[in-house]
Structures are given as structure tokens and as C-alpha cells.
Amino acid sequence: EKLSAELQRLDLAKMIWDKEKTAFFINVYNALVIHANVARGPPKTAWERHKFFNTSTYMIGGCLYSLQDIENGILRGNRKAVGSFKRPFARNDPRLDIIVGRPDCRIHFALVCGAKSCPPIK
After folding, report:
1. Which of 54, 56, 64, 117 has a CA that sits 20 to 30 A from residue 89's CA?
2. What backbone torsions phi and psi does residue 64 show, to the nearest 5 degrees?
3. Alpha-carbon distance values, 19 to 13, 38, 77, 101, 118 (Å)
4. Residue range 66-108, pLDDT digits in tens
């Protein structure tokens, strides 16, 4: 709760380096997965997983970010998610200003989504 309150006041415009954005958003993503699992419980079906990743959110610097937004919008350079028909951010979305310009393929190993195939959440 305290973390999410602090995130609301953050000025993301001050983050200009891709490495800084990547590190920050990986940490926020993992914290949000843990927070959402504690608050809502882990998703059990494919539909629950879809809802979990699209409706678990933090307000960061005045904009709302879901897990899907962070992973595919910010960290993967606004790329479509697997099975998705559109990009996370539309052309006029203010969050486009902070996407990682050169996505790092290693982020896959840093994101903990809570699946059985991921490292355990503790």
C-alpha cells in the first residue's frame, strides 16, 4: 500500500535512460504480481489470468499501468502481447513517452508472473 502511494507521485519524465526504466519497471512489475496475488489470490483459469494481467494496476506518475502495460507496453517497446490484436498503447497515449526504446530480450528472465514455470513468489 505504501509503495503504491509513493508511485503516484513519481515523475517518470526524469527517467531518460533505457537501463533505468528497465530496472524500475521490472521491479514494479514483480511487486505488483506479488501484491495482486496477495490481494486477489492467484488466477486459476485462462480467463482469470487474462483478467489478472489486464486489471491488476498501479497508478504511477499520474497514469494507470497494468501488468500487461508494463510488460508489453513499456518493457517490450509497445509490442502486441501473444494472442492480442492491438498494441498496449495507442498513438496518442502519454505513456508512449517512457517506453524502453531498445527492449532487452533478457527481461523474460527477470519478470516473475506467478506461473508454475516461473521462479516461486516468496
Report:
1. 117
2. -85, 135
3. 14, 29, 13, 10, 23
4. 999 999 999 999 999 888 899 999 999 999 999 999 888 888 8
Q: Is 58 helix (H, G, I), strand (E, B) or coil?
A: strand
Residue 26 has pLDDT above 80, yes or no: yes
DSSP 6: H
Alpha helices in 41-98 (DSSP H): 46-55, 67-68
Q: pLDDT value at position 1?
A: 65
Give all strands (DSSP E) within 38-89, no chain letters: 57-60, 63-66
**Grid cell locating 3:** 509503495
According to DSSP, residue 42 is labeled -
Predicted structure pTM score: 0.90
**Does the pLDDT of residue 64 top 90, yes or no?**
yes
End-to-end CA distance of the chain: 18
Longest dimension (CA), the chain: 39
pLDDT at residue 53 in the model:
94
